[in-house]
Amino acid sequence: MESLAGRAYLVTGGGTGIGAATARRLAALGASVTVVGRRGEPLDAVVADVERQGGHALAHPADVRDPAAVEAAADAALARFGRLDGLVNNAAGNFVAPAERLSANGWRAVVDIVLNGTWNCTSAVARRMIEAGTPGAIVSVIATYAWTGHPGTVHSAAAKAGVVAMTRTLAVEWARYGIRLNCVAPGPTETEGAGAALWADDADRERVLASVPLNRFASAPEVGDLVGLLLSDRAGYVTGSILTADGGQSLGTQIYGPPIADAAAPTASAQ
Ligand SMILES: CCCCCCC/C=C/C(=O)SCCNC(=O)CCNC(=O)[C@H](O)C(C)(C)COP(=O)(O)OP(=O)(O)OC[C@H]1O[C@@H](n2cnc3c(N)ncnc32)[C@H](O)[C@@H]1OP(=O)(O)O
Ligand SMILES: NC(=O)C1=CN([C@@H]2O[C@H](COP(=O)(O)OP(=O)(O)OC[C@H]3O[C@@H](n4cnc5c(N)ncnc54)[C@H](OP(=O)(O)O)[C@@H]3O)[C@@H](O)[C@H]2O)C=CC1
């Protein structure tokens, strides 16, 4: 079992869904966690939860699009816990829209949160780690359409692809400081945010489910576990990588019609 005892991390979008599950997981592994998001209430709930379990957490409301607010969040984390060992870039905004109907502001909202927000946080946390001489790790939560593409999500897919390029570039550039950077690419994961943004009605939900060979949604704690693993020393030789956990969704569609297994099975007369 990996341990993060004594370490301190900042988790963006840490009040809900995958971010909240990740914050809880990191705290359970012994880390102190600063959770960042725009709304204070969900952040406070996660902090209360962590503290009930005997862990240490701090809520710091901030918009990741605002570099000054992100700098203040990193300062608050350092002031409270005395160190920063890394970051989880999890905050995101998303909605499904045909590209030809996406407004300039719709594009900007998503790209600003996902790509610029990730840069703002990565830069703020890494500069402090470099200054302190502390090695550590950064994990960004992306999506498989960063490399497959996916109709209706051009803003998010382009931004997540940018996060992959950022991760790979900095994995090399900051290796000399002992800073590892990796991504987790979850498949469809049961969270309120994604449910509202991506599968709001039963028909959409069924379509998404049908696209997953393992035939289920991931759970947020399942994804949080993988983030914890990548932050830990058990992944000490892993950098610039993407850990995909999508139930096989991105592996391609079958062209011989479902279910192949039944069609290929020997018939009674052939036995
Ligand atoms: C398909 C299965 C694959 C599974 C992989 C899934 C991978 C990724 C999943 C996720 O990312 S899930 C995370 C979902 N969570 C959230 O989205 C929560 C946060 N969301 C938000 O904050 C908003 O939704 C936001 C729009 C992204 C940003 O909010 P903000 O307050 O900054 O912006 P707004 O002023 O509300 O809007 C800005 C701009 O965007 C246009 N817009 C908003 N929603 C839609 C929509 N549904 N369709 C088209 N356009 C939309 C909005 O109209 C504004 O544009 P203008 O009108 O000003 O031109
Ligand atoms: N659920 C899924 O199926 C998948 C999710 N992902 C990725 O996982 C991550 C988490 O998604 P999920 O938990 O499902 O969704 P949520 O909607 O629960 O999480 C998004 C979080 O980001 C925060 N956030 C949004 N905008 C900002 C901002 N400008 N500044 C600071 N925080 C912000 C939100 O809090 P607040 O509104 O209070 O700011 C919220 O806590 C995202 O990166 C998403 O792209 C990837 C693949 C699949």
From TrEMBL:
Its EC number is 1.3.1.38. One of its GO terms (molecular function) is trans-2-enoyl-CoA reductase (NADPH) activity. It is found in: Peroxisome. Pfam families: adh_short_C2 (PF13561). Keywords: Fatty acid biosynthesis, Fatty acid metabolism, Lipid biosynthesis, Lipid metabolism, NADP, Oxidoreductase, Peroxisome, Phosphoprotein. Pathway: Lipid metabolism. The keyword Cell wall biogenesis/degradation does not apply. The keyword Transport does not apply. It comes from the Bacteria. It catalyses: (2E)-tetradecenoyl-CoA + NADPH + H(+) = tetradecanoyl-CoA + NADP(+); (2E)-dodecenoyl-CoA + NADPH + H(+) = dodecanoyl-CoA + NADP(+); (2E)-hexenoyl-CoA + NADPH + H(+) = hexanoyl-CoA + NADP(+); (2E)-octenoyl-CoA + NADPH + H(+) = octanoyl-CoA + NADP(+). It is an enzyme of class 1 (oxidoreductase). InterPro entries: NAD(P)-bd_dom_sf, Peroxisomal_t2-enoyl-CoA_red, SDR_fam. GO terms for biological process: fatty acid biosynthetic process. Interacts with PEX5, probably required to target it into peroxisomes. PANTHER family: PEROXISOMAL TRANS-2-ENOYL-COA REDUCTASE. Participates in chain elongation of fatty acids. Catalyzes the reduction of trans-2-enoyl-CoAs of varying chain lengths from 6:1 to 16:1, having maximum activity with 10:1 CoA. Has no 2,4-dienoyl-CoA reductase activity. This is Peroxisomal trans-2-enoyl-CoA reductase. It comes from Actinomadura decatromicini.
